[in-house]
Amino acid sequence: MYDHSLFLKTLSEFTGTLLMPYDLDTVLGDLADRLTKVLALGGTGVTLADQDRLQPVTAVPPSIAEVEGIQYEHQSGPCVDAFRTGRVVAIADLGQVSDRWPEYCSAAQRLGVCSVAGIPMRLQNQAIGALAVYGEGARARPWPEQDLAAAVVMADMATAFLINASTLHQQEQLGAQLQRALDSRVVIEQAKGMIAHAQGVGVDEAFARLRRYARAHNDTIRAVAEAVVRSGVSV
User: Fold this and answer.
1) H or E stretch including 3?
2) Are 187 and 225 in contact (CB under 8 A)?
3) 134 - beta bridge partners?
4) Which strands form 126-134's sheet, in the order they lie side by side?
């Protein structure tokens, strides 16, 4: 069941992806697809926490999305339990636990799904989502430790992509904020010089006039400075 060579290749390729810009939805979809192949699964789903509820993000193949949707509609199923407990929930035969998650098990049976494991996605001690890995076909499937260990590593990889995407976004925001601050400083200095020259005052007084005008008109100093530079507004 477990393809060790493909697993190592997948880890290597996805580790390289972390070092480059990437689309998170695409990466999580690729990760689900690779995990399905590594473990010879019937499918894989990725879900993320929205406060205390799980919401589906991607499912491979798309037919898995229906049984996933039942789980998250009722917030009841192996992934929900894995998310809430922070522990792997592995079920070889859903027919044996139909009273545990009745709506989910009924939908799984109708769709020919027999076995599933819920793998929590954890950040330190907090679960932030879960992977659902489905056995192939309607036969019971045991979940060997090496299969579950590989799924846990892939769940950790998915978490790493989420955290890295957040960090990159924060860096982009910081870079944009720094650039905006620099741009503001340039236009404010230009406006101060123009006011000082036009009104025969020092640059400190010119800045004070900019600030007073901005306060009086409930505007930002940058906006007033741009009006001075571009339109010759008198302050």
Assistant:
1) none
2) yes
3) 43, 116
4) 53-60, 43-50, 126-134, 116-123, 89-91
Q: What is the pLDDT of residues 175-218, one digit of tens each?
A: 555 567 667 778 888 888 898 888 899 888 888 888 888 888 88
Residue with tokens 């950040």: 123
Question: In the prediction, which pLDDT does 5 show?
Answer: 87
- Domains of the chain are 4-168 (3.30.450.40), 179-231 (1.10.10.10)
179 token code pair: 């650039």
Strands (E), the chain: 43-50, 53-60, 89-91, 116-123, 126-134
Q: CA dihedral in degrees (138, 60, 151, 142; nearest 10)?
A: 0
Counting residues of the chain whose pLDDT is more than 70, the rounded percentage is 91
Question: Does an H or E element contain 179, and which?
Answer: helix 145-199
